[in-house]
């Protein structure tokens, strides 16, 4: 008896019938193995007013940019109007002093950028960035190295670093995690006064 030949078209249909379920099974397997995407954490936006900062304007802009480049959970931007700012920069004749944060939207922080620190020989951008660190909730650590922004005047006037360290940036991100809901704020309004006094050399005997 002569063999019945299967047409090329039928062969293709049979092959596709076998292949499609296999492909579907593989695709479904891969899709089910992927973890569900996580919702991005909300970034806290803080607004500032530097209209009364005078000659500190460029130092503030750079200091703010240094923080924005280093952290992820909070972003600092100029306020649309002075009265709407969450915190302000003000040029003064004394020593720098700042409201201790973490400041949140709707806050009323103030950074006083004192001329006395400049007269002592300290870098203006480091001062502005350091004082901004207080707004973001960081305390001083004068015993730290120059690589730590919050070491302030500790390393002396030769230190011009205005960049927060990785540890400092991580602490700020922790302060503002989950929209700042976990921020540990002082029980009452506190002001940090930074006396940027240059080290006094001991007299030779």
From TrEMBL:
It comes from the Bacteria. It is an enzyme of class 3 (hydrolase). Residues 1-33 form the signal peptide. One of its GO terms (cellular component) is extracellular region. The keyword Protease applies. It catalyses: Hydrolyzes proteins with a preference for Tyr or Phe in the P1' position. Has no action on amino-acid p-nitroanilides. Keywords: Hydrolase, Metal-binding, Metalloprotease, Protease, Signal, Zinc. InterPro entries: MetalloPept_cat_dom_sf, Peptidase_M7. GO terms for molecular function: metalloendopeptidase activity; zinc ion binding. Its cofactor is Zn(2+). GO terms for biological process: proteolysis. The keyword Zinc applies. Its EC number is 3.4.24.77. Belongs to the peptidase M7 family. This is Extracellular small neutral protease. It comes from Actinacidiphila reveromycinica.
């Amino acid at each position: 008896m002569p063999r019945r030949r299967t047409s090329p078209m039928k062969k293709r249909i049979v092959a596709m019938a076998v292949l499609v379920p296999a492909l579907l099974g593989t695709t479904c397997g891969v899709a089910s193995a992927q973890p569900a995407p996580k919702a991005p954490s909300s970034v806290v936006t803080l607004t500032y007013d530097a209209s009364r900062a005078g000659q500190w304007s460029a130092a503030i802009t750079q200091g703010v940019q240094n923080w924005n480049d280093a952290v992820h959970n909070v972003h600092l931007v100029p306020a649309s109007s002075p009265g709407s700012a969450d915190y302000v920069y003000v040029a003064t004749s004394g020593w720098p002093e700042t409201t201790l944060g973490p400041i949140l939207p709707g806050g009323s922080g103030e950074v006083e950028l004192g001329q006395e620190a400049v007269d002592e020989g300290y870098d203006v951008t480091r001062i502005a960035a350091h004082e901004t660190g207080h707004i973001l909730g960081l305390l001083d650590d004068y015993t730290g190295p120059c690589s730590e922004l919050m070491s302030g005047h500790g390393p002396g006037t030769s230190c011009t670093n205005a960049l927060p360290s990785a540890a400092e940036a991580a602490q700020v991100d922790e302060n503002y995690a989950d929209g700042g809901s976990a921020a540990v704020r002082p029980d009452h309004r506190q002001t940090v006064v930074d006396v940027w006094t240059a080290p006094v050399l001991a007299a030779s005997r």
